[in-house]
Amino acid sequence: MSTGSAPSICVALVTFNRKHLLVECIDALLQQTHPVDRIFVIDNGSTDGTADLLRERGYLQNDRITLAREETNSGGAGGFHRGLQLGQQAGFDWIWLMDDDAEPAPDALQQALAASANTSAIAIANFKVSAEGVPQDNHMRLENGVAASTLAGTASPVPLRFSSFVGLLIRSAVIPQVGLPRAEFFLNGDDTEYCMRLRKAGPILLAPASIIRHKEAARSGYAERSFLGVRHARAPFRAFAFRYFELRNTTIIHRIEHGTLSALIFALRRVVALSAAILAFRDDRPLQRIRLVVKAHADAFRGNFDNGFPFRLLRQTSA
After folding, report:
1. What was the pLDDT predicted at 6?
2. What pTM was computed for the model?
3. Mean pLDDT of 243-262
4. Left if phi > 0, otherwise alpha if psi is -120 to 50, otherwise beta: which for 259?
5. What is the mean pLDDT of the chain?
6. 147 is in which domain, residue-wise?
7. Boundaries of each Glycosyltransferase 2-like domain copy (predicted)?
């Protein structure tokens, strides 16, 4: 779908119940100095009136915006799976993955494409900063282990080991080789696992001059507790329940990278350490927390993607 020498670009923008952040992201995408050809908004079954707001504000009358409404929430992993699928099927050269709490700088796409010029890179990552402008090292890890924040203000692209899906430009031609993100992961770790596959197909580069402001929601309800002089911010149970996805998926990833025996040792150590911390810091609902930790690791080895479990657990405890 290239026009002349310019590559065609679409955006796979995943959203769930954050309609006001979503429209801020769409506005930023529409104002790019290098225009995007299409924005696929993958609405993961939102219940906050997302589609109504987009319609009322005229976004759905814009021929560059396509709303793909999913009936159920398939998580970020399912949303990006669907978005890449749509972009590839439509024939776009590059697919720009975007979360709804992201706001790319006006020249973010232009800088990313400049970083891709004359390289064999199969993906270009944007430089993520917080709402306050602080680099987010946990969303981008360099090949050499140096913190990505040290590159702030530089221009030259560098090899990257991992980028979150908060701004990752992927060459569509590589998708038949590497496949799509694992939708069954639901949440957390899908980007890590996908970057592992991408890197086998070619280099991922970080474009330090391509800035995305990532407006992650502030953590609420966390309690400061201490044990033997060590202070730690402890998650409320409603937040801890969703660690099921992280614990399960990171165990699966460890097994892929290092084998079953190493993953088993890793899992046992983490179950013991997390269970001890739950008891030591006197977290609320300790038995339910420990049950979740054990189940997440067991499900990783069984290949059981029980994505409804955290939601069932929260309903049971609230009842």
Report:
1. 87
2. 0.94
3. 98
4. left
5. 94
6. 9-214
7. 10-142
